Amino acid sequence: MPNSWITNKAAGEKWLVGFMARNKELSLRQPEATSIARAAAFTRRNVSSFFNSLEEVYKCTNVDGSRIFNLDESGFTTVQELPKVISPRGQKQVGQQTSRERGELVTCCAIVNAVGNKLPPVLNCPRKRYNETFMNRAPEGSLGLTNTLTGSAWMTSDLFIRVVQHIIKHARPIMEAPMVLVMDNHASHCGYTVLKMCRDNDIHIVTLPHTSNKTQPLDRTVFVFQNVHTATTPDQEQPSTSGAGGASDQQPSTSGAGGASNQQPSMSGAGGASDQQPSMSFAGGALD
To answer: How many domains does the chain have?
Structure first.
């Protein structure tokens, strides 16, 4: 053992470089922040208990994949992350135009069923007063919400009542064709009024344990495209067909500026809906 290891009580930088060179299967990555409570809850017992409850609901309702819906919320910023650009050496300031310097968080509540079809999303905007312009270019049928008390984009029990009404309006659950709704057990989702409304309208709720980062289907299959979609500019997604700026390796889009993209499914409502339907066949499936 080198003396520097004993003195510093740590390996040196050269050893780390050599170790990474010898183990090509390893890479340096930024970890995702995970609370201790969430990590401790991801146990075989908790996950098995959830799937046992889900199986019991399947047997009682006898529904197919088109009546099994998964609900989840995710935040989207109104100002997208800018990509890196090439600039002359020595230039101190490099700018690129955006709508604002700092964006605001808009909460998107997505509802997708097990065969890949989706209901119009619910968008919770960080405002106290609602304005119809908030929903410009959103998918048809989307519901816009605002918190009249605080003006934040966080979901509350009162707002979630309107989300359930939105689900009933579009999914139309009845006794002969009930609906199974899988979602996390956040306090705003489990209010008395929400549970009574679901019971009266043939909606069977199955809540996930505090392990949604591992067991939430939308987190694992749909919202993972959020970072890919929002980290690129419209010019990168849809190359111009005018030929200015040289030829592109990608196929040019003929939908025009601001049209829908066929590559990245997005639930944010900005830029139109995607033509691809994300797969949500999670019932009884294996988890990563």
So the answer is: 1
